[in-house]
């Protein structure tokens, strides 16, 4: 399906208030970015400990930005004032868009979508940052399937240019148009993709990443593979990238690609072994590399 002129074709209600469910690596990044661009942001976490960790992530990201852009203390405070991290549902009321960024488990996401659907105004958009799960299934957990889509940011959110706007078969043109405008307002480049395994980017990227994983299991040296690829002009090698993304996240993506990519099974097996050993990459200080 082609997408000629997504922002001009339809009247669009502007997005003013943005909710984020889950303030982990991705949710905190999405919340921080939206606050920097002037949106009111509510991040909901599961308990007070997780909320505190999410607040810390947001403050650290804003501090980095303030340093990098030489922001005044007033501007830094103004951004932080726009982000409200909470464990309750009420502050989410009035959100025009909620982006779900919780753990990559279908039943958890279904419950989040069903809960949001009951709570939020009928015209609010519900989006998922999932890398590997079906948007169609999440849409079916709601009574507003036309207002459900994927909004797939990449890690780290503040650095990565591209955002995939994922269209499920139920998603309306208006929802896609509003999300495309929102992504542009964040200063990112949207691409509209189908709700298919790996969407576009991971489908293209994973044969490359997977080949590096297979080479490691064949006994090739991790440092050498990454060094050669960097010499080729990439900012980082495939194994460094997998450690940064998270081996658990990569495992879910590889598994979702099993039905469409030839030869991905050994990659799934190898990543599963690492997940079982808690070798999740940078987040556990151990993946293809040891960090501590
Ligand atoms: P993460 O584990 O860092 O964060 C998930 C957060 O969600 C945690 O802080 C957890 O406390 C919270 N949470 C879990 N259940 C919740 C609930 N019911 N309500 C509120 N909060 C809840 O995970 P992440 O790496 O940020 O990934 C989040 C999503 O983004 C996943 O779907 C993942 O596949 C996707 N994604 C990840 C990456 C990446 O590189 N890490 C890239 C693109 C997309």
Automatic annotation (TrEMBL):
Residues 198-291 form the 3-hydroxyacyl-CoA dehydrogenase C-terminal domain. Residues 17-195 form the 3-hydroxyacyl-CoA dehydrogenase NAD binding domain. In the central section; belongs to the 3-hydroxyacyl-CoA dehydrogenase family. In the N-terminal section; belongs to the enoyl-CoA hydratase/isomerase family. This is enoyl-CoA hydratase. It comes from Novipirellula caenicola. The chain holds residues 306 to 597 of 738 of the full protein.
């Amino acid at each position: 399906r082609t997408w000629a002129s997504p922002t001009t074709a339809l009247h669009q209600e502007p997005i003013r208030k943005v909710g984020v469910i889950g303030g982990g690596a991705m949710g905190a990044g999405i919340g921080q970015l939206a606050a920097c661009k002037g949106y009111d942001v509510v991040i909901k976490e599961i308990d007070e400990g997780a909320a505190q960790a999410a607040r810390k992530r947001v403050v650290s990201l804003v501090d980095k930005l303030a340093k990098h852009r030489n922001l005044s203390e007033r501007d830094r405070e103004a951004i932080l004032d726009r982000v409200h991290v909470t464990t309750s549902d009420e502050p989410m009321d009035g959100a025009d868009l909620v982006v779900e960024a919780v753990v990559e488990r279908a039943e958890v996401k279904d419950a989040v979508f069903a809960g949001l659907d009951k709570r939020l105004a009928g015209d609010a958009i519900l989006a998922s940052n999932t890398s590997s799960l079906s948007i169609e299934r999440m849409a079916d957990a709601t009574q507003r399937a036309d207002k459900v889509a994927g909004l797939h940011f990449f890690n780290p959110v503040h650095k990565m240019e591209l955002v995939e706007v994922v269209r499920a078969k139920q998603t309306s043109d208006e929802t896609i148009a509003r999300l495309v405008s929102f992504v542009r307002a964040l200063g990112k480049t949207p691409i509209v993709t189908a709700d298919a395994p790996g969407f576009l980017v991971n489908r293209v990227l994973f044969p490359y990443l997977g080949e590096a994983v297979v080479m490691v299991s064949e006994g090739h040296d991790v440092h050498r593979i990454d060094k050669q690829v960097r010499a080729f002009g990439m900012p980082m090698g495939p194994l460094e990238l997998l450690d940064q993304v998270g081996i658990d996240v990569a495992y879910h993506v590889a598994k979702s690609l099993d039905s469409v990519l030839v030869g991905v099974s050994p990659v799934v097996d190898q990543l599963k072994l690492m997940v079982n050993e808690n070798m999740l990459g940078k987040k556990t200080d151990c993946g293809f590399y040891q960090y501590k």
